[in-house]
Amino acid sequence: MDAKKEIWVFAEQENGKLHSVVLELLTKGRDLAEKSGYTLCAVLPAADGAPLQQELFNHGAKKIYALTDPKFTEYQNDYFSKAVSDLILAESPSIVLYGATIIGRSLAPTVAVMVYGGLTADCTELDFDTEAELLLQTRPAFGGNIMATIICPDHRPQMATVRHNVFKKEPVSDSESGEVVEAAVDISDVPERMKKLETIEEMIETVDLNAADYIVSGGRGIGKPENFEIIRGLAEALDAAVGASRATVDAGWISHHHQVGQTGKTVCPLVYVACGISGAIQHLAGMQTADLVIAINKDADAPIFDVADFGLVGDLHEIVPEFAKQLNAIRGK
Ligand SMILES: Cc1cc2nc3c(=O)[nH]c(=O)nc-3n(C[C@H](O)[C@H](O)[C@H](O)COP(=O)(O)OP(=O)(O)OC[C@H]3O[C@@H](n4cnc5c(N)ncnc54)[C@H](O)[C@@H]3O)c2cc1C
Question: What is the DSSP string of 264-284?
């Protein structure tokens, strides 16, 4: 197993913009590179990737493998998987990371088959075992009841898809530089099995939890569906999006679009206010990277307080409307 000491991040992009999970993976990749002594690289298939290179360097890539072909204007699994797997077979990196996006979830398993490598899907944590020189890939298992750390000792590369928003994105500076390797691409004999007929713009969701800076979430503690109005009241006062626990979604109190957690959305806001949410591990998996967590719960022993920066023990029906009232007064609303 003579693999190159390199960590690759697949640089997913759409319409000339990098997906933010790429910047999160590079930020985490810097830690892994420091621990392992490996070189952090980005793999950028694009029709014209040059305008994206600076952002990749700024987030820690030391080397970019540029795969250039007009067929990379839009994602097509056959073209991308052939190009990425050919590059992996030619360069033999130790580690390849992908976002667990729609594209990453399609590309990574196809590449894994083509390079006969391992793949751990939907990771929520990554680390590096310096002694064994192994990537430690952690993800929920057995219905989310345990967190399993998976290793790939016998094959290279070690590959993982990682959920969006589980790591922070942080540039090193805005003027980093590195090496660009123009990699050879030959996808001329890949048959055109798919043809795009038209693009239908996705309906814009009213709840963009992934992008929200402020989120107010309601749990079973609100008591009944109508009480989401209390949550909405505070959300309006804060210009926040409304989130929810699975208990409320399963009860039909609010739509699944609002669910935060392992089987919902992973969010990373500046402020997350949890109202009447106990703090089950599956809920925490979706929100614990928030910069600031405020918890309101009548049970002082609720596990949500273990991750809260500020905790208010009491009845949410009294606290939340008062909180909204005070905020509105301060903000002149
Ligand atoms: C495979 C799997 C995946 C899952 N995925 C998710 C997921 O994505 N997201 C998720 O949220 N859950 C998920 N769950 C469910 C999770 O285990 C919990 O059951 C769920 O998060 C509980 O929701 P809750 O906190 O709203 O309800 P509860 O656990 O019932 O907590 C309600 C809380 O409200 C408090 N409370 C009650 N009345 C008041 C009041 N008047 N004022 C203040 N506080 C009050 C109580 O003290 C309690 O702490 C998953 C479970 C499994 C097995």
Answer: SB----SEEEEES----HHHH
Q: Which amino acid is at 289?
A: T
Protein residue closest via CA to atom 29 of ligand 1: 278
Q: Report d(CA 215, CA 108) in Å as an integer.
A: 31
Pairing label, strands 146-150, 214-218: unpaired
Tell me the whole-structure pTM to 2 decimals. 0.71
Ligand 1 pocket test, candidate residues 142, 256, 282, most atoms within 8 A of CB: 282
Decide which of 3.40.50.2300, 3.20.20.330, 3.40.50.1220, 3.30.750.24 is the CATH code for 209-330. Answer: 3.40.50.1220
Decide whether any atom of ligand 1 lies within 6 Å of the 321 Cβ: no
Classify domain 4-182 by CATH architecture. Answer: 3-Layer(aba) Sandwich (3.40)
Ligand 1: nearest atom to the Cα of 281? 17
Instruction: Write out pLDDT tens, residues 94-125.
Output: 999 999 998 999 999 999 999 998 899 999 99
- Distance in Å, CA 251 to ligand 1 centroid: 11
Q: Strand, helix or coil at 137?
A: strand
